[in-house]
Amino acid sequence: TLFPYTTLFRSPIFDKELRVASRRRRLYLLRFAYVAVLVLVVLQLWLSFTRLGKAGTGVVQVSRLAEMGKQITTLLVVFQFVTGQILATVLLSDAIGSEVRQRTLDVLLVTPVRSFQIVLGKLASRLLQAVSLLAISLPMLAVVRVFGGVSWGYVAASLCITLSAGIFSGALSLALSASNRHPYHTILAVGLWYLVVWGLVPMVLTALSGAGYVGAATIMSTLRL
Q: Cβ(103)–Cβ(96) under 8 Å?
């Protein structure tokens, strides 16, 4: 029956994308680069706190551990939020364009696999690669939380926000890859969309608020959406 192929994680596109990704050198280079940058950033912050801690007594140094935990956790959360969207955009920038360049899209469309299975299979498989990269920093978050000052609710909420932002950027990159054959064109298009959403729209709303056409509460509610 076709029932096993109707589920997302047992679809042929999902399995095929995971097998192809496991043979690509780019995935392992991304993992190495992500871990290297993450370790360098955390070490830099750790060394800065260590130098400041030498100036005080033992009680002062212990009291600064909670503040250091907050700073490192905040840094990791922001780092994940930014890199998660970049990874999702890069990994999905050639999802459809590669099929067009290799002339395999027509072959996929004449198979029993439906269009939404192709789209969801590519989206889920490549987002799973991005999530696996972001999961590397979870042990570091767990270790830093021992210093105190950070709750598990904050960590879980930050991960959910990062995942939502990654899904948005990945879906946008996947949609734009259908009309752009080259991945760098898709990445540039996603960057332009982000400039419009996060740059032009707030500027327009701020100008309207300054002119008295829109209230501040309306602007905040619109930006939260």
A: no
Task: State the Cα–Cα distance between residues 210 and 197, nearest whole angstrom.
Answer: 20
User: Would you say 66 and 147 are in contact if contact means Cβ atoms under 8 Å apart?
Assistant: yes
Above 50 in pLDDT, residue 184?
A: yes
| Contact between residue 145 and residue 158 where contact means Cβ atoms under 8 Å apart | no
Cα gap 30→34, rounded to integer Å: 6
The region that residue 23 occupies, defined by phi over 0 for left and psi between -120 and 50 for alpha, beta otherwise, is: alpha
Largest CA distance in the chain: 73
Q: Whole-angstrom Cα distance, residue 150 to residue 76?
A: 12
CA 93 to chain centre: 14
d(Cα 212, Cα 208) in Å, to the nearest integer? 6
Long-range contacts for 98-106 (Cβ within 8 Å, ≥24 apart)? 100/181, 101/181
Its pTM stands at 0.75
Sorted by sequence, the CB contacts under 8 Å of residue 180 that are 6+ apart come out as 97, 186, 189
Residue pair 170/193 in contact by the 8 Å Cβ criterion: no
Whether residue 173 contacts residue 190, with contact meaning beta carbons closer than 8 Å, is answered with yes
Residue range 3-26: mean pLDDT, rounded: 67
